[in-house]
Amino acid sequence: MTQALKVGIAGLGTVGAALFRAIVSRHKLLADTCGREITVSAVCARDKTRDRGIDLSGVEWFDDPAELARKGDIDVFVELIGGEGDPAHSCVAAALARGIHVVTANKALLARHGVELAEVAEEAGVLLNFEAAVAGGIPVIKALRESLTGNSISRVYGILNGTCNYILTRMQKENMGFDECLAEAQRLGYAEADPTFDIGGFDTAHKLSILTSLAFGTRIASDEVYVEGITNISIEDIHAAEELGYRIKLLGVAQRTSTGIEQRVHPTMVPLGSMIAEVDSVTNAVTIEADILGELMLSGPGAGGDATASAVLGDIADIAKSRPGHQHGPALGRPAKYLEPYTQAQMRSHEGGYFISLKVEDRVGVFAAIAAQMSKNGISLESIVQRPANGSDLKTVILVTHATTEASVREAVEGVRGEGYVNGEPQVIRIERTKQ
Amino acid sequence: MTQALKVGIAGLGTVGAALFRAIVSRHKLLADTCGREITVSAVCARDKTRDRGIDLSGVEWFDDPAELARKGDIDVFVELIGGEGDPAHSCVAAALARGIHVVTANKALLARHGVELAEVAEEAGVLLNFEAAVAGGIPVIKALRESLTGNSISRVYGILNGTCNYILTRMQKENMGFDECLAEAQRLGYAEADPTFDIGGFDTAHKLSILTSLAFGTRIASDEVYVEGITNISIEDIHAAEELGYRIKLLGVAQRTSTGIEQRVHPTMVPLGSMIAEVDSVTNAVTIEADILGELMLSGPGAGGDATASAVLGDIADIAKSRPGHQHGPALGRPAKYLEPYTQAQMRSHEGGYFISLKVEDRVGVFAAIAAQMSKNGISLESIVQRPANGSDLKTVILVTHATTEASVREAVEGVRGEGYVNGEPQVIRIERTKQ
């Protein structure tokens, strides 16, 4: 049997501790499967005295992750520190440059420095694996990087943030308001004390930018993602959506268009009865539309210590099964030098259906004026619903459009507002067509 | 750049021709991604003169697949001949023994000879890849073999046959009878002229036996699968299921129990609102329950020339990315010598809920007698529905049980029949709990 694979874990939080436990408790299974043993030879964390329920005797301890990366007696550096900057960035770069494989769960790091790190890994002839960085335990990186090789991808979209999906599911199923559901998510540990990064859509954007690169063979462009979060979504929107045959999900969507690639994160109407509409709570799901394969959907736990540890362990096992000096597959699916520049499609050119909800004064001619603005902008309507607005003498008018452009919708909505009878902010939610 | 990978394709039917076209038309993309070119250097089919819309000039032609396997100037032998016996079996064995990698889409071959062929591949130090053999283009083999390494699997289940799912979906959505839907499936090319292999559940059983081995690390036991097909399912069953909150799908289920492993294929009630209930038409789906990861579901096209070719191409690309003499991963997830014997759980010990539909004479005491039989066998009921049977003076009594055993249900149903007022065959359909 080949020599044991020595793993160094930087970061012993929930994921790091779960990974440590799994490697110890599955020792024989892993050795049988991989054809060699996997051992944790070194770890690094902030506080050596903290009780993590794991036995660190015989494992070299480092206080500084940079020391572990540069000097640890390891074959694989597992980065579970988090954050796009240092120490995570410099540690990963140092380990790769030294010829040590890296496994990371750090989406922020990859969104910012992924291409640069892939180049370092390729030059050093080592692997940079990051299955856990997107959609937790779901093997979407492997699907894009390996299974779909040779396919041309037209669209990849998914539910990539468990916090948002938990809140939207709870609102819909239990008729609760946004604030109440957020508080509940925080109580259960599904949302941070400061939830902005999740509910603002930024976490989804990071993950999406990594998927975009893998799907389209372009350089990662995490700054060029159109982002809307879910803080605007009301229980009334959710009810109206259901009545019209839709469910609201926060999707990340990357799509090839004639003018470039769209990367967008926003609340989205998906058809009731589609599989993605049934993805509940903290579960994540990703759909890939590929020209040879067709449509592939993967769903599973998108976060949590164990699910993330499982993905990290799969990445480590791939390294254990490969042989030194003969590594398998570039980090971003193709060698970094072949990645194409990212060409952003303008959001105004986005084509699709729209749900538009307007609170309007209840007077003669309002409806006709709305219809005229839609018509003027070339928008044809799939359905129109009018009903009394909650607790006021206003009316809510809901329009569902056939496919049109973002520019037309923005213009039409501005036109309607310009006529002076719209109260408050109009709600505009994009509709995404799905196949399954 | 490393030398081109030379592929030999045995069988130029729909899949073979689609694969050939993909390798030619994606030449640059494949070379960029894999770090080396992929070329088709030899092919074999029955009729050289047939127009397949592909240009075979410069490609060596073999009339006999055994010649291609034994003498072709190839690095990879792609077996698309089909069938568990020869020539597929001897060709694959010969190619592996000669040190040539093999990619196959042949589930029957693997169900019968998979362990033996895995041993030959391991001895020769070459890869035996078969992503396309189960669930077409869905990367479930890779998920089990690589992504979930280190996880202990408790259950794997799925919709593995597009023909059956097409028929059941059509019956449910369009209120059509079984025979009519089968005829429609045959007209559209989704079912064979002799559909027994699909609708009898045998195709699902082959695929399931391969998943079982990968999930549980056991030797393939395709003869030890409990199989019921869908020919018995009536439109009345489908309606009754929907009313009670279920949809009927033909599932293959492999599950670890205290007495062994259950492998079963049968029509199954899955809850409405679960993701698997929304898997429609020829789409396939597989759910894996893993102890570290949690529940993972994959769905996509389960058949068709292109989807199958995509999976075959992914397998070829994995070989192209690896380096000769340093191969990656045993065929069945762990080296064949470590595979455990398969221990079959008895079907009578199966535990779960049951849907039981009985046509009974409409007389006093019938209902009480049924209830007494259930009670006598320790079966508690979740719901009971009674209604007039179609076009007769009989009544239909439908029972949905809480979790019980197969043995209890069989005994209870025999007990009820023994009392003499049941008309025709009782319908018994197992209920499968799902998480997502």
From TrEMBL, chains A, B:
Top class in the EC scheme: oxidoreductase
GO MF term (any one): NADP binding
Pathway(s) this gene product operates in, as recorded in its UniProt entry: Amino-acid biosynthesis; L-threonine biosynthesis; L-threonine from L-aspartate: step 3/5; Amino-acid biosynthesis; L-methionine biosynthesis via de novo pathway; L-homoserine from L-aspartate: step 3/3
Binding-site residues, L-homoserine: E192
Domain ACT: 355-436
Catalytic residues identified in the record: K207
Keyword tags: Amino-acid biosynthesis, Methionine biosynthesis, NADP, Oxidoreductase, Threonine biosynthesis
EC number, as in UniProt: 1.1.1.3
A biological-process GO annotation: threonine biosynthetic process
InterPro entries in alphabetical order: ACT-like_dom_sf, ACT_dom, Asp/hSer_DH_NAD-bd, HDH, HDH_cat, HDH_CS, NAD(P)-bd_dom_sf
Protein name as it appears in the record: Homoserine dehydrogenase
Organism: Pseudohoeflea suaedae
